[in-house]
Amino acid sequence: MSDHASNDPAPRRGRPGYDQETVLRRAIDLFNRQGYDGTSMGDLAKELGLTKSAIYHHVPSKEHLLSAALDEALDGLTTAVDSAASAAPGASAHARLRTVVQESVVILAEHLPAVTLLLRVRGNSEIELAALERRRAIDDKLTSLVRAAVDEGALRSDIPPELISRLLFGMVNSLVEWYRPGGPVDVDVLASSVATLAFDGLAVHPS
């Protein structure tokens, strides 16, 4: 090492800079690891290398982060279901339902941490209760779409539509337990495989 290099001043260590998106990503990961109720703003500050007081320069509260995370998960699902429910006349309920299933898989993959957090919500706060209410609204629209597909003769009628809906999206939701973006399974292949497996089993077969 030269004399010049040895005389260089050490790099200055300042307060880490984070945008709100980065803080949200790190908060969601922490909530998923420790549980939302088991995570404090002090824990998040430590995770980011900030002081407890400095974290409030980035976000106003833990509740604000939870709300943003749940909205992220719910907004994509709501858009997919609403688009299917209001599709142009002539589009079969079966085709619209299959599209929703495939889009739901893609949304889950693209927003995996936020969807994981959503699926763990139990209604312990006003924010969580509001998220659960939005989930119920989504479930009701999906059940109506399933019922329409049964009525048009595209799905088997020996299983109640409410149960079909729960089983379909229970399969989609279970992906949070093992699917990892960047892994060996391509998300488009995954979405197509889930739809094929589900709808082949639900198809009306000639007697």
From TrEMBL:
Q: Where is the HTH tetR-type domain?
A: 17-77
One matching Pfam family, short form?
TetR_N
Instruction: Please give the superkingdom of this protein's source.
Output: Bacteria
Q: Molecular function (GO) terms listed?
A: DNA-binding transcription factor activity; transcription cis-regulatory region binding
Q: Which residues bind DNA?
A: 40-59
Cite the entry's keywords alphabetically. DNA-binding, Transcription, Transcription regulation
The name on file for this protein is TetR/AcrR family transcriptional regulator
Lineage, uppermost ranks: Bacteria, Bacillati, Actinomycetota, Actinomycetes, Propionibacteriales
